């Protein structure tokens, strides 16, 4: 909250309703003892954090918080969403559709937003992935009654809810429920925004920052980043395409700049709704094959410098193969799925005899399983191609005299961006996560008892009798373990696993 002179201040309207414990639901005062370091820093800039819940009317805000927002806010940006393609439909529907409508309800209750500000909704360029070719910056007319569709989905629950959602997704031609819910939300916002100035921002596949605040920052692998993450640890990739389709990626600082500058341009345009793409396919296109080539080069260079600890590597190098035949790819994908299932079974059996090796094998096949799932989810976006028009972003860029808000997509150099993306993923996300997992595993209690004889006589065509003996030398205090494996060829007693 800032006064007319632009000075940051705090008054009674931002004080907490409670005694500082944080249970009162009000804005936390700068003097609150429960504030985090981040909140103290934000308060220094006149920024106050208010907790909300997308599952509740008016986001579950306290009456005091709600009145404060209504009196002071002029711009509302909704970028809350469930972005995982494989999230359950009820979660996607509740967050991407119902949640968006609750945010616009809050925005419409703010006089400043309706009159002199604007509401910004962050959608996705793939909200129109059921179309092909050139995608314009507009809401496409449809024979779909979106309000009726919303009502139908809202009145169903459980299996009926998911079955109806799948029928609608297939009927409208969306590759997954994520794009379906984002498309539905756009049209519902169009029908409900009234005269409130409204901007729908559609980014394509968001990657790490290009320059601002520094190069390569990212908090988690998403989209193209998931493929880079697989390759970073030596995993091979077989992609379902010839690699010549455009891979529409965009740095995250360009998306942030478009949201901020778009809101400034949209403010006060009462009665208008605009759509703006934030993408690269229109002015600086790059193919998936070129992106893969840049990623392989960056990963090879990084591995040669041992920046990723060898204990985390699952292969010596990244191998990318393209498979243009959809039938052949389907067969290979099914074979890989089967290998993952068998690998999990072997790891489970091995863990009872050789716990350390069993855990390592289990982690490997979990990784391979996730890789298969990633490729399955990204399949429609790698095989198909769209060109998202970005005339409005280009118009904003032409009047750009602020380097901290980049919009010049045509000047992006993709090769160094891929290199920075890889380094950022490893530094800020992948390696810290793996280190936490490793530390957690090392804390698990390990059995110090010698291995006891164990027999596997089911779940395999051949019965395996596995025994181990331990002998120790009192003088050297060394233990030797001998593993004997006997195979009984009487397959008639076995069970297929």
From TrEMBL:
Keyword field: Lipid biosynthesis, Lipid metabolism, NADP, Oxidoreductase
Protein family according to the UniProt entry: Belongs to the fatty acyl-CoA reductase family.
Thioester reductase (TE) domain residues: 47-259
Residue runs in coiled coils: none
Domain Fatty acyl-CoA reductase C-terminal, residue spans: 362-430
Biased composition (Polar residues): 455-477
Source organism of the structure: Vitrella brassicaformis
Comp. bias regions, Basic and acidic residues: 1-12
Region of interest: Disordered: 1-36, 441-497
Top class in the EC scheme: oxidoreductase
Alphabetized GO MF terms: alcohol-forming long-chain fatty acyl-CoA reductase activity; alcohol-forming very long-chain fatty acyl-CoA reductase activity
Name of the protein in its database record: Fatty acyl-CoA reductase
